[in-house]
Design a protein that fits this description.
Layout (H helix, E strand, L loop, with lengths): L4 E11 L4 E12 L4 E17 L3 E16 L5 E17 L2 E11 L6 E14 L2 E12 L12 E11 L3
Antiparallel strand pairs: 1-2, 2-3, 3-4, 4-5, 5-6, 6-7, 7-8, 8-9
């Protein structure tokens, strides 16, 4: 076994104007090999949609987030961080979409940062079903030292079937 993790994200957007919005977000991560029982990130901030077209979208977000990391072994940690995010989607052929989501959390109490980048190609199958191929990089500038095999960067390639709720 080389990977055992679960990641989920919920986000609510409230638009003040056609392009400017506020958001609330929640991220949950469990990663057995990082000794992470549960990382909870809750945050709020503002975003701006620079491009919003049927085949092309680009937005940026900035805000503040609260981190709580519950480790299986060792001392749990919590702290505040900034949250900076970008999402780009491009439908380059009917039914084929490329997307890239990047989020970085610079910690406010020290010179650490955690970031996640997901590049994905999605192909429509039938109805709301699609196939996807993702390449995900998780980076932690200061991983826990109590588990020597934990590296700063984790790479994951994921092939899946997804259902889009529209």
């Amino acid at each position: 076994m080389t990977t055992r993790n679960t990641f989920g994200m919920l986000k609510y957007d409230y638009f003040f104007s056609p392009k400017l919005y506020g958001y609330l977000n929640l991220e949950l991560l469990n990663d057995y090999f990082k000794d992470l029982n549960l990382r909870t990130v809750a945050g709020t901030g503002v975003g701006y949609q620079f491009i919003e077209e049927p085949a092309l979208n680009l937005y940026f977000e900035g805000g503040i987030a609260y981190f709580n990391e519950d480790f299986r072994r060792g001392r749990d940690e919590d702290q505040m961080a900034l949250r900076l995010a970008k999402k780009f989607t491009w439908t380059f052929h009917e039914g084929l979409t490329f997307s890239n989501f990047f989020v970085v959390y610079p910690q406010l109490e020290d010179n650490e940062a955690i970031w996640r980048n997901e590049a994905k190609i999605t192909a429509a199958l039938w109805g709301n079903w699609a196939a996807s191929l993702s390449f995900i990089v998780d980076y932690d500038s200061d991983p826990p030292r109590r588990v020597p095999q934990i590296r700063k960067a984790d790479f994951l390639m994921l092939l899946g079937i997804q259902y889009n709720f529209n």
